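[STRUCTURE TOKENS]
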Amino acid sequence: MSSIPLLVDSHCHFDFAAFDPDRATVWTAAQGVGVGQLIIPGVAPDQWQAAAQVSAEYPGIYCAAGVHPWWVKDLVGGDLSANQRDKIRDNLRQTLTASPCVAVGECGLDKLVDGHFEHQQELFALQVELACELNMPLIIHCRKAHNEVIALLRRYRPSAGGVIHAFSGSTRIAETYINMGFYLGIGGTITYERAHKTRQAVSEVPLTALLLESDAPDMPLCGRQGERNSPQYLPETLRILAGLREQSVAEVAAQTTNNTRRLFRLPDEVG
């Protein structure tokens, strides 16, 4: 067992219904291949408690709380009033301070989502402000909105940094985030040979800036399209990343694990 690299899945929706039938079995299987810790991101207020319950039930699993851009439209409807914004902020702040959350998020911007992009921007700014106030790291979702995300992060400069989840940009964009104190979440995207830009970026940036993630049950690896993704497949992403960087699996495993624990202030002990 000692020869298996110890890994941390920095982003896994392990509370989602897709894992309800066999959550304990999947976690045992993940631990069997070296995944000793896992972080469940938050997506919406009605999900935060479920994430906290799963993290309480399984040693080594931690949770975050935030409003994902995909859930913004359902949460605020057609208009976002000042009163509504304040209620969301107060609810989120209470959740972050009253439960064992390790981060603010998953939050961010997504231009591919139908709805009012300005509402996404308002709630993202609200969450970055909270992260600054509470000195907590951010878990950031970004699709087709790097310019807006970078501008907002430069405006607030969150001291605890965070991670750009499911990073799929160029080396230049990667370096911009890294220079602001952010890590890059690396998952199933790099297992696809067609992802030339992202594969090149993860091979060129410092290993000290990378985290491993599954994004399970989403983001299936190449060869597993159409299947439920799982944290037990994280070693496959590790092997691809090590190959792209021409570094040993052990070295990449050790550094990405240290990076994740440092960012989210996780204990060194598993469980």
